[in-house]
UniProtKB/TrEMBL annotation, chain A:
CDD domains: HFD_CENP-W (cd13732). GO terms for biological process: chromosome segregation; kinetochore assembly; mitotic cell cycle. It is found in: Chromosome, Centromere, Kinetochore; Nucleus. Signal peptide: none annotated. InterPro entries: CENP-W (IPR028847), CENP-W/WIP1 (IPR052484), Histone-fold (IPR009072). This is Cancer-up-regulated gene 2 protein. The gene is CUG2. It holds the Pfam family CENP-W. Transmembrane segments: none annotated. GO terms for molecular function: DNA binding; protein heterodimerization activity. Its main location: nucleus. The keyword Nucleus applies. GO terms for cellular component: kinetochore; nucleoplasm.
TrEMBL record, chain B:
It is found in: Chromosome, Centromere, Kinetochore; Nucleus. GO terms for cellular component: kinetochore; nucleus. InterPro entries: CENP-T, CENP-T/H4_C, CENP-T_N, Histone-fold. Residues 395-539, 685-699 have a biased composition (Acidic residues). It comes from Esox lucius (Northern pike). Belongs to the CENP-T/CNN1 family. Component of the CENPA-CAD complex, composed of CENPI, CENPK, CENPL, CENPO, CENPP, CENPQ, CENPR and CENPS. The CENPA-CAD complex is probably recruited on centromeres by the CENPA-NAC complex, at least composed of CENPA, CENPC, CENPH, CENPM, CENPN, CENPT and CENPU. Identified in a centromeric complex containing histones H2A, H2B, H3 and H4, and at least CENPA, CENPB, CENPC, CENPT, CENPN, HJURP, SUPT16H, SSRP1 and RSF1. Interacts (via N-terminus) with the NDC80 complex. The lineage of its organism: Eukaryota, Metazoa, Chordata, Craniata, Vertebrata. Residues 760-854 form the CENP-T/Histone H4 histone fold domain. Pfam families: CENP-T_C, CENP-T_N. Keywords: Cell cycle, Cell division, Centromere, Chromosome, DNA-binding, Kinetochore, Mitosis, Nucleus. Residues 76-273 form the Centromere kinetochore component CENP-T N-terminal domain. This is Centromere protein T. Component of the CENPA-NAC (nucleosome-associated) complex, a complex that plays a central role in assembly of kinetochore proteins, mitotic progression and chromosome segregation. The CENPA-NAC complex recruits the CENPA-CAD (nucleosome distal) complex and may be involved in incorporation of newly synthesized CENPA into centromeres. Part of a nucleosome-associated complex that binds specifically to histone H3-containing nucleosomes at the centromere, as opposed to nucleosomes containing CENPA.
Length: 75, 868
């Protein structure tokens, strides 16, 4: 998107947590997933901020939203 | 027709009957009873009547006719009622109907002669009469007519006639009954009346009662209106009981229960609140208690909640109190030193008096130092230090008796033990030796120590006074210098074991102290050189300690630095100690030690390591002497030096400190060395560690492990989630200063942190930029910590899920399809939103290429399509 996250970082992160190997293409998919998640997170946060009549997304908005979203994105 | 006449009422009929017939027919009674019992269906009655008609045709006929007439009358009356009253009428009619048939049945069932029937009717009539009282009156006159008519009819006609008229009469009766029904609404009242009647008991005649009873009974069930009604099965008591139940029991119960419940609730609440408050007040109880109290207090006022939360908070704070404690310890040290100072002088005075008058000042200082040290140590490990102190005091006492020099030593030791683990006894001894010539210095030291203690930051002050005290104690001469030194030394010397533990603590203190001390101390004394040195050392030690608090190695350093400081103070221990030691030997123990420390400091400048190493040896003598302090006469530098080697480990630390000291000594370098010393100290420490015996390092590690455990955790947490919740921030604060020290830490140390830092994950810039892009609106900066944490959690879950999917597919590698499945489950990918679309939508080209085969020229597809 705007910035590219180093694939290596992603991969290392997954590797660190998963303890199993990860394929090449899967990295890109994971990135996609992350993007999607962030996207939804941002949308929700934006909505919440609007509810609060604030043009700026604040941390409290995000926090309030995150729990619900994390639960939803559980898979 | 009379039958049709509304006026025809059962009453009238009955009257007619009564008038006409006087006989009583049992059969009719049974028949009537049966009829009565029955719901009063006309059909039945008619049938029965029909059967009985054979026997008592005339009577039954009459009865039937009367019933019919009753009904009709009631019905008619009801009909006559204005339409507005229809409802009531209808109700009443219904009610009337029941009573009508009841009445009719009564009429039939009357065992008694029609006369009784009539009576009953008459009795009931008025009660069951229409709402309008006139009705019964009308009914009555009607009845006779009806009766007469019926009678006449019946007599004239046969059954068939009667049947017909019966029907009509029944209709009439029904109407009348309906009319009577109007009374239904009254029935409620009547019921009450009935109850009263019932309660009042049956009377023989039960005229009124009978009527009322009949009415009620008719309502409830078929019952003879006459007194027989009482005999009816209808439970008389039922309504009463019912009423009672309704009226008394239920409401009473409810009321009571509610009230009681409320009261009970309140009582409980009060009780619980009291209990919980108590528990809350304790605060010290674990969260579990608070939770329990919470559970109890659920219904309690909110007042309790804050307590709980407070408790929770306090409990939580307890978790973090430890790191704060380090700081607080510093602060407290100051207080302690201040507090200890007055105490110490007493102690010192005691000892001094016992041992030497000259060294009163020293003693005082020593006491102060010791106190300070003690306070510091106490904070760190009160038990240990106290114990040590005690032992030291004992030792001190012993030493005192032994020699004057021993006294300061013991004091030093005591202080050392108290403050930081092992104070270098030999050092202290050396310092003790010095004090003789340095009474003034002692005074200066005292002042310096005080000054140093005061102005310095909490940490430093704490360390300083400790060191100062330590120094002061051992040597009146070297009080000034020795104090900080001794403190340091003490810290380093007394116990290898303690050192390890106290090291991290003392190191911090010392490191902090030396810094400030350096500056301040540098001024006052002729032996400022020594003092600043000691101070520097102390500072260095403090710094080291502070830094070490986070790091295991720090503990080591402190360990070493402490020893170094002490060495410098009393004996040149460690690297710098060498010169100190040498200096000590020639000069008086105390002063020599200090000076040597200073000299050694200079040497240290040049080659701190080497010097330290060298100094260690002579210092070791001292050091070695310090441990056996109470036992040995460590006045002699040789002894100390002899001890020093044994205390190499300890000295290593103090040596580093010492480097600071000597530097401190040199006014020129007094300021400079602080930093480089501190900077070096870690390095030195490292080296020292190398030099230091493994045991010490191990021990120090172990010890350091203990204390900074939480700090390390915090550090890790910091590195992991630097932007986490405020709770983490708490940890941040203490870690911040430590972090600074950590900077100087060896790479190895950093390696640990770096390893843990990896948890952070995605680069912040990336995450934030993406978020901003998606948000389309301004995003505040404080969002990112939260974002990071969220991402981290998300990643964890992501990895777990992917792992599971892969394992489910009996694969060991996470593949694209795993991620695809995950996305599908997450709802990102649906039937209407295939993956590829998403890929196209979001991913940059590079990633996309990986995922979607792209055909390029030459029939070359990228990526190579997998073949399954």
């Amino acid at each position: 998107m705007l910035k590219r996250v180093p694939m290596s970082k992603l991969k290392s992160l997954i590797k660190k947590k998963a303890h199993i190997r990860i394929g090449t293409a899967a990295d890109a998919m994971v990135e996609l997933n992350v993007l999607l998640f962030l996207h939804s997170l941002a949308e929700e946060a934006r909505t919440k901020a609007f509810e609060e009549k604030s043009a700026t997304i604040k941390a409290c908005h995000v926090k309030a939203v995150c729990k619900k979203l994390l639960k939803q994105a559980r898979g | 027709m009379d039958y049709v006449n509304e006026d025809v009422s059962a009453r009238i009929l009955l009257k007619h009957v009564l008038n006409t017939e006087h006989s009583v027919s049992p059969e009719t009674n049974s028949a009537s009873q049966a009829a009565l019992h029955s719901s009063g269906s006309k059909i039945r009655r008619s049938a029965r009547l029909g059967c009985k008609v054979v026997v008592l045709t005339p009577q039954e006929a009459i009865k039937q006719s009367m019933k019919k007439k009753l009904r009709e009358s009631t019905y008619r009356t009801s009909l006559q009622m204005p339409p507005t009253k229809r409802r009531t009428i209808s109700e009443g009619v219904r009610k009337m109907n029941s009573p009508a048939p009841a009445t009719t049945s009564i009429l039939c069932d009357d065992d008694i002669t029609p006369r009784h029937l009539l009576r009953g009717i008459l009795q009931t009539e008025p009660s069951t009469s229409l709402l309008i009282q006139d009705r019964p009156v009308r009914m009555e006159p009607e009845q006779p007519y009806a009766n007469s008519s019926l009678l006449s009819n019946s007599s004239s006609t046969g059954l068939s006639e009667l049947d017909l008229p019966d029907m009509t009469t029944t209709v009439n009766l029904g109407s009348t009954a309906k009319g009577l029904r109007r009374k239904r609404p009254r029935r409620s009242l009547n019921v009450n009346a009935f109850n009263r009647l019932l309660e009042s008991g049956e009377d023989g005649g039960g005229g009124g009662e009978g009527s009322s009873a009949t009415e009620d009974l008719s309502l409830l069930s078929s019952a003879s209106p006459s007194s027989v009604t009482f005999s009816l099965k209808t439970p008389f008591v039922d309504p009463q009981t019912e009423k009672r139940a309704f009226k008394r029991n239920a409401p009473n119960r409810k009321k009571i229960t509610i009230e009681e419940f409320d009261e009970a609730l309140q009582n409980q609440q009060v009780a619980m609140s009291g209990d919980t408050e108590l528990s809350d007040r304790e605060d010290q109880r674990g969260l579990s208690e608070t939770v329990q109290s919470q559970g109890l207090m659920l219904g309690l006022s909110d007042i309790v909640d804050p307590d709980i939360t407070f408790d929770i908070i306090t409990n939580k704070t307890a978790l973090y109190a430890q790191p704060v404690e380090t700081k607080s310890t510093f602060t407290t040290k100051d207080k302690d030193t201040i507090a200890a100072a007055p105490i110490k002088p007493e102690m010192g005075g005691m000892k001094d008096d016992e041992v030497r008058g000259q060294k009163d000042d020293e003693m005082e200082l020593d006491d102060k130092d010791g106190e300070a040290l003690m306070t510091d140590a106490g904070q760190r490990e009160d038990s240990v230090r106290q114990e040590d102190f005690k032992s030291q005091t004992e030792e001190v006492a012993e030493s005192q008796t032994e020699e004057e020099g021993a006294d300061p030593q013991t004091e030093e030791e005591v202080a050392d033990l108290q403050t930081e683990e092992d104070v270098v006894d030999p050092q202290t001894e050396e310092e003790v030796a010095d004090p003789q010539t340095e009474d003034e210095e002692v005074a200066d030291n005292q002042t310096e120590g005080e000054e140093v203690a005061d102005p310095q930051t909490e940490e430093e002050e704490v360390a300083d006074p400790q060191t100062e005290e330590v120094v002061a104690d051992p040597q009146t001469e070297e009080e000034v210098v020795a104090d900080p030194q001794t403190e340091e030394e003490e810290v380093a010397d007394p116990h290898t074991e303690e050192e390890e533990v106290a090291d991290p603590h003392t190191e911090e203190e010392e490191v902090a102290d030396p810094h400030t001390e350096e500056e301040e101390v540098a001024d006052p004394q002729t032996e400022e050189v020594a003092d600043p040195q000691t101070e520097e050392e102390e500072v260095a030690e403090w710094k080291l300690r502070s830094s070490a608090s986070n790091e295991v190695r720090f503990s080591r350093r402190d360990y070493q630095s402490e020893g170094g400081v002490r060495v410098t103070g009393g004996i040149a221990e460690g690297r710098g100690y060498k010169s100190l030691g040498t200096g000590l030997h020639p000069s008086e123990t105390g002063s020599a030690g200090r000076r040597s420390g200073g000299d050694s400091a200079d040497d240290w400048h040049s080659s701190p390591e080497v010097v330290a190493s060298k100094s260690i040896h002579p210092q070791t003598e001292y050091i070695g002497s310090t441990p056996p302090f109470p036992q040995e006469d460590e006045m002699e530098g040789s002894i100390r030096t002899g001890n020093s080697p044994s205390n190499e480990e300890e000295n290593a630390v103090p040596s580093l400190e010492m480097t600071g000291e000597p530097e401190n000594k040199a006014p020129e370098s007094s300021y400079l060395p602080t930093h480089p010393i501190t900077a070096r100290s870690p390095a030195d420490h490292e080296e020292d560690w190398e030099d230091v015996e493994e045991e010490d390092s191990n021990q120090s590690e172990e010890l350091s492990m203990k204390t900074p455990a939480f700090v390390r955790e915090k550090r890790n947490a910091l590195s992991v989630d630097p932007q986490n919740t405020p709770t983490v921030f708490k940890g941040l604060q203490p870690s911040v200063p430590v972090g600074a020290a950590a900077m100087r830490k060896p790479a190895a140390v950093r390696g640990k942190t770096s390893g843990t830092k990896k948890d952070l994950g995605l680069p912040k810039s990336y995450v934030t930029s993406v978020f901003k892009h998606f948000a389309k609106t301004k995003v505040s900066s404080d969002v990112y910590p939260v974002l990071k944490e969220i991402m981290e959690r998300y990643f964890d879950r992501l990895a777990d899920d992917l792992e599971v999917y892969a394992a489910h597919a009996n694969r060991k590698t996470i593949e694209v399809e795993d991620v695809e499945l995950l996305m599908r489950r997450q709802g990102f990918v649906t039937d209407s939103m295939p993956v590829n679309v998403l890929i196209e939508k979001y991913l940059p080209m590079e990633s996309r290429k990986l995922l979607i085969p792209v055909a390029t020229s030459g029939n070359y597809v990228i990526p190579k399509p997998r073949r399954k």
